[in-house]
Amino acid sequence: MEQILPIIIGTLALIIGIVLGKLIFAKNTKKQVEEAEKETQRIISEGKNEAETLKREKLLEAKERFVQLKAEHDKEVLQRNQKLGESENRIKQKEQLINQKDQSIEKLIKDNEGIKDTLTRQIEVVNIKRTELEKHQEEHIRRLEKVAGLSAEEAKAQLIESLKQEAHSQALVIQQEIVDDAKLRANKEARKLIIQTIQRTAAEQAIENAITVFNLESDEIKGSIIGREGRNIRAIEAATGVDLIVDDTPEAIILSSFDPLRREIARLSLQRLVTDGRIHPARIEEVVEKTRKQLEEQIIEIGERTVIELGIHGLHKELVRIVGKMRFRSSYGQNLLMHSREVANLCGIMAAELGMNTKLAKRAGLLHDIGKVPDDETELSHALLGMKLAEKYGENPAVCNAIGAHHDEVEMQYVISPIIQACDAMSGARPGARREIMQQYLQRIKDLENLALAYPGVEKAYAIQAGRELRVIVEADKVTDMDSDKLSFEIAQKIQTEMTYPGQIKVTVIREKRAVNIAR
After folding, report:
1. How far is Cα of residue 265 from the mean position of the Cα atoms in its chain?
2. How does DSSP classify residue 410?
3. Which residues contact 47 (CB under 8 A, 6 or more apart)?
4. C-alpha span between 85 and 341 (Å, rounded)
5. Alpha carbon distance 406, 416 (integer Å)
6. Is-contact 25 33, C-beta < 8 A?
7. What is the mean pLDDT of each successive set of 10 residues along the chain, which is 520 residues long?
């Protein structure tokens, strides 16, 4: 097609020239016809030249393309031949390896057949000798039975029985000696170990109060704290759950509550309010909430300081918070954190004397009473609750078992468990360590608050004035004024029927409606 193209172009040019010549001839003079013919001849000549030139160029391009394709084809053929040669070499090598393996296998089979024959002959010889030996042994036994008048089984049984009786009597004598010696040594060593442990641990007496005295610079501040018609003091008591006693005591206000944490929040809040000077219900709620958050940070700091002082590492941050929270709780009048620190030190000393892991013992001693400071009320005992908390936060199984078993509520599975139980008893049994009446009182106060919180619509409940008054704060949207009277009566009746208490308890139901809008 490319070679025909120049010829077609030349032919077209020729036809165009002829047509042009005829047109010029028809319209112009003879001179013009001659010029047109000359022009036509020139155009035809140029067309032929261009056609020849294009023809030569296309032939050259076709030859070059043919040479290039041939070179590429030769190259591909060469590469394929090389790959085929390599494949043939690999196949030959594999065939040689297979032949060598076949030869080796055939040789092994021949060798094994020879060994098998040898072993078979040796086994036959051994079987023959064993048969002969059994015959000789049976003959020997028959001769012995004939001489002794007993069969082999009877003689064996008599010998075993005599040896058993002799060993049993000797074992009883040795066992009794070991038991007597162990009892004597165990009692001495146990007394020595406990006495040394107690002597090496500093103990504190139980000091637990139900009130805190807040000192004032002057009695004029009492009026600001009470507020107009007592609204400030009511707001403080409602926000903190602490009873404020303002009496004739000069320059002092008494904060009364069974919960040390509430008393501390109330004390710090009052200190800020008095220093700031702005005392009104909205400001009181803001300061109390801020103080509660800061006290939470202080609790975490106390926990961190405690675990650092005891050399305990890797404790979960939630367990650290619970340890710090024990600073504001008491157990039978004994500060819970001081008791736990003391138990941890006792456990560490006793474990060191017994050659056990002191760090693990201290860890279990510090955490053994974490169930006494739960965030939520629960029906579980403090030992089982503490074990579940320790398991939840990834503590060692030995520590978890020691926490749950220190009051024999679960089975002791590790050696460290009785050590925790013994050290807990040592810390609580010291003269002046605990007050039984205080714990009963605290439990009664908690039961009183929980009784009120069980009713629907109750938001908060505070037992104040040492349990002589119960203040119940209800939600205004859920409880009407008429329901408040009924609720107060029902709570009082339930307290009379279900609780044991000295004197009388005043039940106060507080219902407050607030309308809040913000101007922007």
Report:
1. 32
2. S
3. 9, 10, 13, 14
4. 85
5. 10
6. yes
7. 66 74 60 73 83 84 85 87 86 86 79 76 85 81 67 70 76 74 63 56 46 71 78 83 77 78 84 82 86 88 88 88 84 77 87 85 88 78 88 89 87 87 76 52 83 90 81 88 88 85 81 79
3-class secondary-structure state, position 466: coil
Helix axes 317-325, 382-392, angle to 10 degrees: 150
Of 356, 217, 204, which is closest to residue 274 (Cα–Cα)? 217
Which single residue is written with the structure tokens 């609580």? 428
State phi, psi for 150 to the nearest 5 degrees.
-130, 150
For residues 238 and 265, give the distance between their C-alpha atoms in angstroms, rounded to a whole number: 13
- The candidate with the shortest Cα–Cα distance to 364, out of 324, 288, 330, 415, is 415
DSSP 375: S
Q: Which of 436, 408, 418 is nearest to 346 (CA)?
A: 418
As beta bridge partners, residue 471 has 462, 508
Strands 252-256 and 211-215: antiparallel
* Residue 376 CB partners (closer than 8 Å, separation 6+): none
Estimate the share of the chain in helix, then strand, then coil, as percent rounded to the nearest 5.
70, 5, 20
User: Residue 237, by phi and psi: left (phi above 0), alpha (psi -120 to 50) or beta?
Assistant: alpha
**CA 393, CA 364: separation in Å to the nearest integer?**
14
370, 322 Cβ separation under 8 angstroms? yes
Q: How are strands ordered across the β-sheet holding 458-464?
A: 458-464, 469-474, 506-511
For residues 296 and 475, give the distance between their C-alpha atoms in angstroms, rounded to a whole number. Answer: 26
Show the DSSP H helices in 149-230 as ranges: 152-199, 220-226
Provide φ and ψ at 173, rounded to 5°: -65, -45
**H helix count then E strand count, the chain:** 15, 8
CA atoms within 13 A on the CB side of 265: 29
How many Å apart are CA 216 and CA 195, to the nearest integer?
47
Task: Work out the angle between the directed axes of helices 281-310 and 317-325 (0-180°, nearest 10).
Answer: 110
User: At 260, which amino acid appears?
Assistant: P
Helix (H) or strand (E) holding 506: strand 506-511
* Cα 364 to Cα 195, 204, 358, distances in angstroms: 21, 21, 10
